[in-house]
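Practice problem 4.
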């Protein structure tokens, strides 16, 4: 059995004995509930612990080291070594009750045996020994050649890679008062949210998928001016369509003027929950593929036929998955797979689905073969410069720059605009769309690695860059660029006007400093930062930030969504709301 290279499709883990995550906002029956609450808290802790252990087991069986941020003193025994008898590399796995050997294969009782079963080489009292995963060659061939000749390669790096961009302090004062009461404070691996008015009362709701293991449907939260409450939607339609942690887009997909909810989840392809009014929805796939796995989707009329279309990005490398299937097929003498049984063409990371007159969706992803997998995607199908529709996305391939695509209505194909433009040597994370100097723009966060052999030393770090269209040409403006020993990923970025001057500002849930940083766009095209004293603090990871007027007072507010992972330092998750008090 081939082991996974770097992405673990955790939805495929065979879970046993997991119940739904308790809701944090259930009406409290005060006193009598306190004993129950303690029990519940203990159960939650136990679940989290079991979860952590299973994730670790999955990593171990996939040949991955323990999660770095965790205290790994307990897992020092995880090791790969060269067997002195055979010269082969072996991985040593400490024995524990969850592991067993079936037919010569090592299995974990809580993991799907089809994915996690490894040939056992030998065992002793304390350990199982399996063949260590084969490491993919990481060095470019040119470097091998150079090394063979005893030469050290020299890489000419653009001096701008060493640039540091730090916005000046703004004189603008902005009071952001937290009004999060009633919002969930836990629930993990949420990825993307929408803030949109689903019931037509002119007040937007927060809409998310359920968190991981939440087992719920759409999560909808509304603000009454003082606190938040949960709306329990009534969901009808195709019960085989499951909501899973992932992403949301709100758009009118069937042209009845009611905004519908498009969701996509890890291990759960996109589908539409059609809005029937009064928070009732009917879920339908209408030709959207079940096979896809993702955490981000975005909607708009790409081809201008008046019907809404979708772009969705995979949260796994479909290219790597396909390659693995092809190698397996080759080894077994079977024809290489190209499509799954339902006609889903394998190996494309970002896909476009076009609405038809019949109300169904048809995939037309021409040009997207070079696109990336990632956790964010945002589409602007009607940019204010009346130019071609475009989308921007994250890209989890190290060094991948295909993060910006225009759609050409004449040829019906997408064109990569990120080549030679997007930040190099790194991966791209969060995405938000808006305007820069009045022009259509994408605001993208990134983490930079290093170029091997860079002569002036490493230039690792992180930052935010703006890609904007000036006439026909896309240009880059760096908003923030930090050099650091190791860059920090921050996915949560929102764009909108916060001080009412008509210029789009930026709210960044900056995980490296633990603050929601606000940057005001100036008329000259620079950015100035709100006094850090006035910035909300946050922990763990920011996943999604939106700038929207939630309370209808004419001033845009900030909504922040967390993702907490098993390895996060605290258990804080959920959502937070910062009201713009001027
Ligand atoms: Ca609709
Ligand atoms: Ca369309
Ligand atoms: Ca502004
Ligand atoms: Ca407001």
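Answer key:
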């Amino acid at each position: 059995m081939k082991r996974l290279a770097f992405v673990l499709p955790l939805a495929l883990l065979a879970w046993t004995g997991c119940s739904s995550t308790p809701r944090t906002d259930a009406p409290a029956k005060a006193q009598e509930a306190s004993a129950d609450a303690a029990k519940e808290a203990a159960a939650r802790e136990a679940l989290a612990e079991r979860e952590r252990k299973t994730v670790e087991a999955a990593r171990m069986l996939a040949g991955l080291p323990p999660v770095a941020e965790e205290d790994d003193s307990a897992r020092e025994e995880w090791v790969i070594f060269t067997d002195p008898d055979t010269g082969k590399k072996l991985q040593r796995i400490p024995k524990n009750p969850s592991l067993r050997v079936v037919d010569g294969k090592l299995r974990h009782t809580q993991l799907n045996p089809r994915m996690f079963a490894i040939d056992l080489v030998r065992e002793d009292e304390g350990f199982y020994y399996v063949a260590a995963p084969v490491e993919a060659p990481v060095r470019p061939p040119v470097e091998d050649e150079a090394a063979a000749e005893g030469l050290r390669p020299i890489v000419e790096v653009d001096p701008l890679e060493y640039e540091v961009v730090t916005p000046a302090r703004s004189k603008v004062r902005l009071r952001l008062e937290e009004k999060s009461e009633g919002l969930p404070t836990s629930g993990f691996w949420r990825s993307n949210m929408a803030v949109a008015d689903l019931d037509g009362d002119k007040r937007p709701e927060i809409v998310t998928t359920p968190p991981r293991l939440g087992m719920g449907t759409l999560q909808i939260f509304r603000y009454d001016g003082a606190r938040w409450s949960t709306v329990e939607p009534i969901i009808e339609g195709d019960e085989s369509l499951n909501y899973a942690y992932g992403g949301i887009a709100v758009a009118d997909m069937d042209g009845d003027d009611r905004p519908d909810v498009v969701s996509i989840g890890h291990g759960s392809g996109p589908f539409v929950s059609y809005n029937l009014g009064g928070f009732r929805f009917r879920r339908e796939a209408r030709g959207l593929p079940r096979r896809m796995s993702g955490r981000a989707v975005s909607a708009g009329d790409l081809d201008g036929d008046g019907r809404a279309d979708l772009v969705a990005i995979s949260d796994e490398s479909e290219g790597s998955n396909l390659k693995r299937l092809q190698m397996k097929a080759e080894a077994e003498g079977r024809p290489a797979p190209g499509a799954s049984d339902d006609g889903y063409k394998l190996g494309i990371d970002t896909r476009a689905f076009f609405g038809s007159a019949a109300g169904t969706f048809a995939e037309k992803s021409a040009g997207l073969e070079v696109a990336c997998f990632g956790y964010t995607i945002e589409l602007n199908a009607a940019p204010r410069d009346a130019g071609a529709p475009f989308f921007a996305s994250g890209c989890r391939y190290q060094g991948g720059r295909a993060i910006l695509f225009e759609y050409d209505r004449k040829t019906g194909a997408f064109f990569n605009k990120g080549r030679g433009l997007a930040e190099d040597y790194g991966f791209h994370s969060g995405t938000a769309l808006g305007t820069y100097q009045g022009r259509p723009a994408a605001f993208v966060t990134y983490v930079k690695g290093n170029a091997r052999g860079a002569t002036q030393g490493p230039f690792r770090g992180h930052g935010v860059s703006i890609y904007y269209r000036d006439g026909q040409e896309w240009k880059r403006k760096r908003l923030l660029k930090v050099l650091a020993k190791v860059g920090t990923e921050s996915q949560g970025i929102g764009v909108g006007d916060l001080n009412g001057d008509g210029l789009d500002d930026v709210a960044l849930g900056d995980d490296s400093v633990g603050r929601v940083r606000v940057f005001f766009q100036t008329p000259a095209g620079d950015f100035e930062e709100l006094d850090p004293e006035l910035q909300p603090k946050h922990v763990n990871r920011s996943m999604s930030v939106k700038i929207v007027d939630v309370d209808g007072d004419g001033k845009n507010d900030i909504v922040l969504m967390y993702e907490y992972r098993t390895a996060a330092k605290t258990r804080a998750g959920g959502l937070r709301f910062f009201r713009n008090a001027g």
